[in-house]
Amino acid sequence: MIVGLVVLLLLCPCLGLAGWAAWRIADADNDTTPAPSATAPVVPPGLPSDAPSPVLPSPDEEEEFAKGDCVVNDGTEADAELRKVPCGPNTYQVLLRIPATTDGDRCQTLAPQATANYVHDNSIDLFDYVLCLKKR
Q1: Shortest CA distance to 131 belongs to which of 122, 114, 123?
Q2: How far is it, in rounded angstroms, from Cα 77 to Cα 75?
Q3: Rounded to whole angstroms, how far apart are CA atoms 29 and 115?
Q4: Cβ–Cβ < 8 Å for 93, 70
Q5: How high is the pLDDT of residue 59?
Q6: How many CA atoms lie within 13 A of 100 on its CB side?
Q7: DSSP per residue over the chain, as a string?
Q8: Measured distance CA(124)–CA(104) in Å, rounded
Q9: Quick one: which of 44, 31, 35, 60 has its CA closest to 130?
Q10: Closest CA to 65 of 136, 132, 134, 135
Q11: 16-66, pLDDT tens digit by residue?
Q12: Which of 7, 25, 29, 105 is deepest in the core (most CB within 10 A)?
């Protein structure tokens, strides 16, 4: 009876891990369509200013955006390039950062006051995120 209990205790974590892996694979199969970046509201390009632009970081130095940060889009609606800036008029404030997803529609329920969203789709799903943004 003790041997059976030990075997059961060893199998439970393995079965749980296998079930989780199967669930992630099934979930990944459902997300095979690309993120709807053209249909989701995105941040429009920032307005030009008289102030000189700071030196932009290299693509290897990815910025981390957190709740409360303000950003402007130096790119286009189709290919947004967000940059942190001091909060002020014509900026977007990050209301919520949703990790490990590319579902921009989640902003409608999790941050209903958001007026736009930004979807970051990384080749590694764990590093995907959505920013729920509000125009200031």
Answers
A1: 114
A2: 7
A3: 30
A4: yes
A5: 42
A6: 4
A7: -HHHHHHHHHHHHHHHHHHHHHHHHHHHHHT-SPP-TTTS--PPBPPP-SSPPPPPPPTTSPPP--TT-EEEESS-SSS--EEEE-S-TT-EEEEEEEES---TTHHHHH-TT-SEEEEE--SSGGG-EEEEEEE-
A8: 17
A9: 35
A10: 132
A11: 666 666 666 665 555 444 444 444 455 555 444 444 444 444 343 456 899
A12: 105
How close are the terminal C-alpha atoms of the chain, in Å?
Answer: 66
In the chain, the amino acid numbered 107 is C
> Model-level pTM?
0.55
Neighbours of 120 (CB within 10 A): 18
Q: Which tokens in the block code for residue 88?
A: 């002020």
